[in-house]
Amino acid sequence: MSETKVTSPAQEAFEEWERETLRPLLEKHPERKSNFQTVSLEETNRLYSPADVEPLDFERDISFPGNFPYTRGIHPTGYRGKLWTMRQFAGFSTPEETNARFKYLLAQGQNGLSVAYDLPTLMGYDADSPLSEGEVGKCGVAVSSLADMEVLFGEIPLEHVTVSQTINAPASVLLAMYLVVAEKQGADWKKISGTLQNDILKEYIAQKEWIYPIRPAMKLVIDTFEFCTKHVPRYNPVSVSGYHIREAGATAVQELAFTLRDGLEYVEWGLRAGLQLDEFVPRISFFFNAHNDFFEEVAKYRAARRIWAREMRDRFGSTNERTLKLRFHTQTAGVSLTVQQPLNNIVRVAIQALAGVLGGTQSLHTDAYDEALALPTDRAALIALRTQQIIAEETGVANTVDPLGGSYYLESLTQKMEEGARDYFRRIDAMGGMVEAIEKGFPQRELQDSAYQYQKAVERGEQVIVGVNKYAMEDEASEVPTLIIDESVREHQVNRLQQTRGSRDAGAAGNALEKLRRAAQNNENTMPATIEAVRAYATLGEICSALRDVYGIYEEPAF
Amino acid sequence: MNERKIRVLVAKPGLDGHDRGAKVIARALRDAGMEVIYTGLRQTPEMIAAAALQEDVDAVGVSILSGAHNTLCPRIVQLLHDQGMDDCLVLLGGIVPQDDIAKLKQQGVAEIFLPGTSTENIVKFLRENVKPRE
Fold it and tell me: Per the CATH hierarchy, to which homologous superfamily does domain A75-459 belong?
């Protein structure tokens, strides 16, 4: 039996254009190259037309902002009601230095804070641990105990300023420190809002700052969900992060797929722990990268909202609007910044930030131009913030909701993103879930492959990086001043740590740590005991060490 | 005649977990016909030097993006020297401010590769600079 091919009028019109208009021209004027690819190495068609969006149904797939499936945004008024939160990630050196940077950024019109911790803090080591040597205050601010946290947020009213904390393996400890500082300021926990990154799954996949094995680490995450739902109801206890997955080499589809599948995993673990879907899921937030390929990024954010809404409805049966709506933070792609001709990075960041805004982000961090060299100087950090303010106040893109919606290319790409992510969901579901997929090394290998393919494409010149593999300059005189953090920071931090250990009630700290160990052993929620330990000035290293005693440590298998 | 393959230890010292670069380079060196051993994350300089000796490598490629290079690299060079491996090249890749480069070279780091370096340049450097063995 022969199959009759049904061709729609739109498809017929497109084919006629190809035949009558395009082909004669191509014979005379061939295109610049045979294959046009996105930064994710996905092929892009020459033209998108009504034929490409025919499978889409406006009501079902696109709809209006504020309406299911939220492709066009979660707010009916977009940025006309409220602009996105300009939240610059900052942290370096001592808590005193970072506190000063925070106050400077707030004075310049920034409206939310975002803390970067140094590597010892991220790994749960105190500043005086031998493993911390050379690393204290380098990649972020050094925090070893409540005493540091009190300085970090000195004169910053935590009831009124929303603070995002980038901390993962020891997140429950830093949350406890934050809550105790807030309490000492007289702030009401019920009014505090802010975000804890606390996304341990992407650590095993991409960023690799882990402490404990994956299953107890997941349990700690769920402890914070449970605690915040009861006691800090306006706080987001997790920011499910694709940012680091992308930085580690993922394509846009892989970033989207692994991040949302991580999100689904947290929902499943929360439900298994007895939490109520519509009580904790509305406080799950997301964090995406904004890379160079403009349309691919905008499509990714729109697809993310649509997929999440559909998964919450279809997988978990939610009809609660707050559960269905995906909220996210965006950061421009650090990995795209170049050491060569560093001022070019200002332009890259502006375009990436624009993609985040046109994708409907709730908050945004713009990278500073000197971040391929070091942590940003004041000047570089200020230009990064001004970039957002220019987009918000000068370009007009915030005047209308989802201005790119309806573009044949964008809608078709959004659809392709959703299909690509769903294909990964099927493979991961078949493995038993994301924890199991990570244990098998599946997302890790996918990322490594993509990173390698991208590097090869750059080296073949197929992916152009201006100033690096094209338009490079010999002996460029592009020196920009960089921030230098020396070893005196460690000395300063070790001094405070010794003072803290010397002046605290040693018995109380010891008892609190013992209580925490028991809570972990008995599979109880660890948050109350963690808070008690923090109050007694037990250090981050001591608390993590107590949990290591119970849970052990993660060893990465060779993939 | 069988030429000995160049053997390289790719190492991640310090607390930094960003291993994209280390893994891309390990694979590129393998594709270029070298023998590559990857240490995994969070190795101390002592562990790296011990692995270099045990694996009898011609070069150690160190990847650091956290800013801890001034503490870690000279120590790796010193430990290799102490165990008689002066011919073993130490290469550094990562985010290294311009001011640190000359100092690190003086301290015995053979070459520093910044972001944007092509893997071909690293392969070429190793082929040209690894000391031939008997």
Answer: Methylmalonyl-CoA mutase (3.20.20.240)
